[in-house]
Amino acid sequence: PSITFVHPDGRAQRIDASNGESAMQAATRQDVNGILAECGGSAMCATCHVYVDEDWLARLPAMGDDEDALLDGAAAERQANSRLSCQIQLGADLDGLVLRLPDRQT
Ligand code: FES
């Protein structure tokens, strides 16, 4: 699948991802600035926070309790469409996914 990250300045960065990797893994592998992922994807740091484009929100699996709790401590304001990108598993069903980056992760 290919997914797009939209930076706080409005710049869109489209990257190719592999089936089964997380949006965070795809982003860090391809140097998308704005995803820090300090815990490496263990749902422990909240520095992979993203805002999911509204069109895609309902297509993502529901978040787990760990993710929900961590998002409360994210550096940037939590919004209704906030998710942790390390918990978004990519597959063909999410081809074209659009994720917006918050203005800070720490
Ligand atoms: Fe740490 Fe996602 S990488 S919570």
From TrEMBL:
Task: Give the lineage.
Answer: Bacteria, Pseudomonadati, Pseudomonadota, Alphaproteobacteria, Hyphomicrobiales
UniProt organism field? Bradyrhizobium jicamae
- What's this protein's name? Ferredoxin
Gene Ontology biological process terms from the UniProt entry: P450-containing electron transport chain
Q: Do the record's keywords include Cytoplasm? A: no
What family name appears in the similarity comment?
Belongs to the adrenodoxin/putidaredoxin family.
Q: Which SUPFAM superfamilies match?
A: 2Fe-2S ferredoxin-like (SSF54292)
GO CC annotation: cytosol
Gene Ontology molecular-function annotations: 2 iron, 2 sulfur cluster binding; electron transfer activity; metal ion binding
Instruction: Tell me the ranges covered by the 2Fe-2S ferredoxin-type domain, including all copies.
Output: 1-105
